[in-house]
Amino acid sequence: MKFTLPIIIVVVTAVLIGLALLGPEQTRNVVGIEAGSAVYTRKSSTPEQALRNLLADVQRRNWDRAIAEVSKGSITDKQAFIQDWTGSNGSLRSFSALEGFESRPLHITNDDAQMRVRLHWTTPVGPIEDVRDFRLVREGDVWKTVLPKTEIPNVPARVIPVTFLRWDLVTGGASDEWGSRNVDAPHVRIISMNAVDSAEGAVVMGEVVNEDTVPAFVNVNATLVDGAGSAIDDETSFDKIDHVLLPKQVSPYRIDFPNFNLKSVKNVRMDVKASLVPASADPVIGVMNQKIESDPQGKSVLHGDLFNQSGQTVNISHVIVSFYDNNAKVVWVADGYEENALLPQASAPFAVEIPKSIAPKVQNFHVVVDQYSLNKS
Amino acid sequence: MFRHLLISAAIGLTAVAGMAQDLRVPASVTAGEEATISTSGSGKATFYLLGPGVSSKSDVSLGDEIRIQGQELRNAGDYLALVCSDSCHSGTFYVAAAKPAKLTFLVHPSRVPVGLSDAVSGVAFPFDQFNNLVLTPKTISFQLLAGDKPLFSRPIATQNGVAWFRTASGKSAGLLQVNASLDDLSAKRAVQQVASDPCNLRITGQRIPIGVIVQTEPVHDCAGNVVPDGTIVTFSATEANGKSTVDAPVKQGVARAQIEASGATVVSVASGVVMGNELRIGAKP
């Protein structure tokens, strides 16, 4: 009896060491799976398990094992598969990591299943949620994921003439006895403003125009004022604006006041700040085929394609949309980041969701595209 | 503050000590020029001079003239002269700025759209060689030149050392030279006059195999000035199944965009808050 406990301890230890040696990374696979919803097992005996295994391997960038989870007939190129999940060309995806995912079945038969996955990405611009539908098929006694063929965007070699147009900024010295002789700040103007309550709090939004002949770096600030005339909160448009406005360019802006209600607000004080900034008129990004449709989840979504009309790669595109009602009043401003880089003379789809309460009011919209290129300051 | 305290203390001392000597200060003194103060009586005394940025003490003989060097009178303003022996006596005099030696000229803004009323303003301050603001009225001539063409010319007298003007911007984009002159002094500033909002924005377009290509006619403001390159023109193409937009910059006077559209399309154009014409392009054959 006195040897029973040591024997049990030795056996359990040996089993644990063996498990660790056979699958040293398996215990980490639970990271990212909905808390308590799954336990990692290698055997993909159910569609849920198969998809979970695939995404866990993607999350850990264990590409060989991830590809082994994919149906043989659906994937041809490992590089394209990897690029699909890790991004390329300095895109937002290439700076992102899959933090977690939640899946739910749409339909399952004996040999075929459709799953919807909500992918949670951590990115430099904040968390991004991506919804993808996956088809799975049974191959023997295991389930495999069928992935659509992913093609690496390929830009044909060509010469694209660009009449390069940019503004540089030369600041003056302070040799004058009255200080610097710098040129004036650009003249920008708020052309519309609307304040509404949303589920997350009060929202102030509208549009701002650069009325000047030089580029402007613009930021819009709003201060909520109560009945006594005291400021109760102030916020800026942060990234819900196209900060660099070229001459006569119009940008939507949105300022969020989380957990505030307009009932306690008597007045909103607006302030737009503009400063001179070096800028370039290239690249030009067209927004094609814009239309509002319902997605499979029943949400109203503005879809379209971004078309890079220039000869340089746009690493990260940021779509900002102002939605108008039938009186041409801005009723909502939404935005979204394109996760893939926009190659020269190439198109990429985008989608921006419209809140359910706003969708019925929307009669028109205006899309602007802000862009970030790594090779530019 | 310290100077005021000293002056107050000195005046108080004078009142206590009574008037043993006579002191005559000059009626008017110009900054940087020598001045003399005459005294009466005899014997040794101590002379104090208190003024803006100046505080000095020297031994003098009563009955002689006290010479104050121009170096000590560089700053315009009120001065106090004080002579003390067994009692103290004081007098005040004012040092005025010397003749203008420098003209400081400020013009606003540095960049202005054409055809705006009261858009350009300038203010001039005459200073003497010691940087004293010249408060005596002086007539400053302001002149605005667009190229060689004079737009505005006006002599304006300074009031309390300041002369200013406000006027409309010209009709043509380009450099606006603003001059201010006073006797042989002058100062030049430049204002960039830029085109105003686009006017009569018109587009033409045609169908190409991959969509439509549209371009503006040369974009001008209402005074006929070409808008600067880089001005954004927004093209919107609406067809039955969607809308496409392109924010295109003006390059060499025109903006052009290529839009994917296969059906019958209506293309509209806007720049800032200014709308242009609409263009209807038939469906792809």
Could you walk me through the main structural features you see in this protein, from its secondary elements to its overall organization?
The complex is a heterodimer of chains A (377) and B (285). Chain A has 377 residues and is mostly beta strands. Chain A has 3 domains: 28-146, Roll (Nuclear Transport Factor 2, Chain: A); 166-172 and 180-280, Immunoglobulin-like, CATH 2.60.40; 285-372, Immunoglobulins (Immunoglobulin-like), CATH 2.60.40. In chain A, 12% of the residues lie in helices and 41% in strands. Chain A has helices at residues 4-22, 47-59, 63-68, 78-86, and strands at 97-108, 112-122, 128-139, 142-146, 166-167, 188-198, 201-210, 216-225, 231-236, 244-245, 250-258, 267-276, 279-280, 285-294, 300-308, 316-324, 330-338, 347-354, 364-372. In chain A, the strands form 6 sheets. A 4-stranded antiparallel β-sheet of chain A has the order 1-2-3-4. In chain A, strand 1 and strand 2 form a beta hairpin. Chain B folds into 3 domains: 2-96, Sandwich (Immunoglobulin-like), CATH 2.60.40; 102-194, Immunoglobulin-like; 198-281, Immunoglobulin-like (Sandwich), CATH 2.60.40.10. Helix content of chain B is 6%, strand content 55%. Chain B has 1 helix and 25 strands. The longest helix of chain B is centred in the first third of the chain and has 16 residues, at 2-17. Chain B is rod-shaped. At the A-B interface, strand 14, strand 15 and strand 19 of A face strand 9, strand 21, strand 22 and strand 23 of B. Strand 14 (285-294) of chain A pairs antiparallel with strand 22 (242-249) of chain B, so a sheet runs across the interface.
